Amino acid sequence: MRSVPQEYSIQKFYQFAGSPKYNRSTRTYSASCPLCREGSSWGRKRRLYYILDEDYIYCHNCGWSGSPIKFIQESSNSTIDE
């Protein structure tokens, strides 16, 4: 399985997700989900979470979950090789 550096994953999370914020106490990022667009609450609600300790991303709105590389691939409509 391929992996990417965490700094790169965070950079891409900021690029694709809407209005990201970092929570130092829980070491998580939260943002609006670019995959489901969260209906009319885009940019106001943050239901997409990137848990750094587990290197895992989950959306509480649409139920999407996976690794950062899968998130980057689906958000940018690219292949793993790209």
Q: Distance N terminus to C terminus? A: 15 Å
Low-pLDDT parts are none
Helix count equals 2
Question: Quick check: average pLDDT?
Answer: 88
Percentage beta strand: 25-35%
Residue share in helix = 10-25%
Structural class: alpha+beta
DSSP, total strands: 5
Give the biggest beta sheet: 5 strands, antiparallel
Helix and strand succession?
HEEEEEH
Shape: globular
Give me some keywords for this one.
82 residues; 5-stranded antiparallel beta sheet; 2 helices; single chain; 24% helix; 5 strands; alpha+beta
Could you explain the architecture of this structure?
The chain is of the alpha+beta class and 82 residues long. 24% of the residues lie in helices and 26% in strands. The chain has two helices and five strands, in the order αβββββα. A hairpin with a 5-residue loop joins β4 and β5. The model has no long low-confidence stretch (mean pLDDT 88).
In short:
It is built from 2 helices and 5 strands.
